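Incident log, support desk, overnight shift.

02:14 A customer reports that sequence design results differ from what the structure should imply. Their input is reproduced verbatim below. On-call engineer (initials T.W.) acknowledged and began investigating.
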């Protein structure tokens, strides 16, 4: 929800995706970065691994990746094209 509201307002967006299909649900036409682990089971669109409510693919995303992506948003100019990080 908040990601789509920010995108609708034209704000830059950093989005983390786990089991969800980021190709289908990521924001478009705005400055964005989509972060997702690279697992062969993605996107499964389940509520966590085996519907457990706990998604390993979200745990695979390292905090350093999030921090680096966030810092890049402050360094890069507004006109920078959309970006997908993994």
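02:41 Re-run completed on a clean worker. Output:
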């Amino acid at each position: 929800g908040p990601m789509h509201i920010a995108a609708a307002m034209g704000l830059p967006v950093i989005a983390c995706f786990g089991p969800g299909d980021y190709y289908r649900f990521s924001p478009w036409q705005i400055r964005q970065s989509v972060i997702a682990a690279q697992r062969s089971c993605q996107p499964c669109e389940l509520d966590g691994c085996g519907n457990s409510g706990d998604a390993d693919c979200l745990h695979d995303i390292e905090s350093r990746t999030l921090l680096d992506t966030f810092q890049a948003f402050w360094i890069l100019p507004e006109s920078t094209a959309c970006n997908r990080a993994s």
